[in-house]
UniProtKB/TrEMBL annotation:
Organism of derivation: Pseudoalteromonas prydzensis
UniProt keyword list: DNA-binding, Transcription, Transcription regulation
InterPro entries (UniProt xref): BlaI_family (IPR005650), WH-like_DNA-bd_sf (IPR036388), WH_DNA-bd_sf (IPR036390)
This protein's record includes keyword Transcription regulation: yes
Biological processes, Gene Ontology terms: negative regulation of DNA-templated transcription
Domain of life: Bacteria
Recorded family membership: Belongs to the BlaI transcriptional regulatory family.
GO molecular function terms attached to this record: DNA binding
Protein name stated in the entry: BlaI/MecI/CopY family transcriptional regulator
């Protein structure tokens, strides 16, 4: 299943708050201070309808006149699909560049570093 960036944003919100209405998703989107561009409710509803057509969400109830939605696809499923495309798009398929970028950009505490070292050790023992 291929989703646009905005569809992925809506799915992220739904995973955090599900089940919820399109209006609730719109309010969550407006409350996100990382988003500088404000979107209309009708835009969010159109995206939710599109996600329903793609079988990513389904109607699971009603609250007055508002339809309540829940996800049909797990976050991990879409993350696995998005990973390779993200790496190709931003890092020309180079996993070293991707990993180096995140390590350099993120503030890592000692628990984070230990976790990464464990992942690398496990990966090395697989080979």
């Amino acid at each position: 299943m291929k989703l646009s960036d905005f569809e992925m944003d809506i799915m992220q919100l739904l995973w955090q708050q599900e089940p919820c209405t399109a209006s609730e998703l719109h309010q969550l989107l407006l409350a996100d201070e990382r988003k500088t561009k404000k979107v209309a409710y009708t835009t969010v509803k159109t995206i939710v309808d599109r996600l329903e057509q793609k079988n990513a969400v389904e109607r699971c109830g009603q609250q007055g006149r508002a339809i309540i939605y829940r996800s049909l696809v797990a976050q991990s499923t879409l993350s696995e699909q998005a990973g390779p495309n993200f790496m190709r798009r931003f890092f020309k398929g180079n996993s070293r560049s991707l990993i180096a970028h995140f390590i350099k950009q993120e503030e890592l505490n000692s628990d984070d570093i230990e976790f990464l070292q464990t992942l690398l050790k496990d990966k090395k023992s697989e080979k």
